[in-house]
Amino acid sequence: MDRLAIVVPCYNEEEMLKISSEALRGVLKDLIDKKKISEDSYVLFVNDGSKDRTWELIEEEHAKYPVAVKGVKLAGNVGHQYALTAGLLTAVQMSDVMISIDADLQDDIAVMEEMIDKFHEGKDIVYGVRNKRTTDSFFKRTTAQAFYKLMNAMGAKTVYNHADFRLMSKRAVEQYAKYGESNLYIRGIIPLIGYETDCVYYDRKERVAGESKYPLKKMLALAFNGISSLSVKPITMITGLGCIIIFLSICAAIYAIVSYCLGNTEPGWTSLILSIWFLGGVQLLCIGLIGQYIGKIYLEVKHRPRYNIEKILSE
Ligand code: UDP
Ligand code: MG
Fold first, then answer.
1. Residues 266 and 161 in one domain
2. Least distant ligand from the CA of 11
3. Ligand nearest to the CA of 213
């Protein structure tokens, strides 16, 4: 039977930890009773350099439930995306399937069973997708929605309304591990892995205890990181802007020449205005072109896997 690891990144989650641990152990027990996962399945809490008692609480839980609760302590705070990666890459060595979820239980743990069912049907990645975001504030909802739209427009393909609540098989996590990039935006990388995927839908709840560890500043940083680490489209936009300005300068040239011929210009104005527009456009275009090369270098140094072979038929 398959050994499940539920990976939970935790940063200053002392109010949540016992509640999460109990709820997640409940899910494990239920799935074990239904013979859907092995008896040594476990919850893996990753302490992301918390400043409160989070790690002590993880230790206590592990002492009480040595099989069901395990922990990873990071030496300092590295942020949600890295903490989650640390957890996944630790768990992959000792489990067959992993589900990542936030410590605040805003995502519905009840759909984990459905995720496991889909895994048994042969899906390698199962995304948890929010139906609606009624419990989030209007501000959080609209900014998050704008964020997904912007990301997609910028060429970073992500699953709409999916955060980091997802199931991944062992081989999917192993493939994910090959993406050695430091500017990490997990949601953008997972769709690049391939394999058969599916979604389960749920309503996102309110945080049970504690407060959001993702203030606007961190959200904006995540958004910029997402775009800049997945796409070099902004550079292409500079090139495009250069082209547009050169075109405008041609229009301006016609206007200036007509004005000149009609005789209602000051001496020197025509040549000045033309050079300003034209040179501006040429400069932008050149910056864009250089940018294209930098963009290529950027993609090269990531050393991403170029493909993922699923099967080979030979002999
Ligand atoms: N988290 C983390 N490191 C950080 C910030 C957050 O591991 O530096 C964890 C946090 O403990 C939680 C998850 O990431 O389990 C998501 O954070 P939160 O629920 O505060 O974000 P929100 O749901 O408000 O976007
Ligand atoms: Mg949350």
1. no
2. 1
3. 1
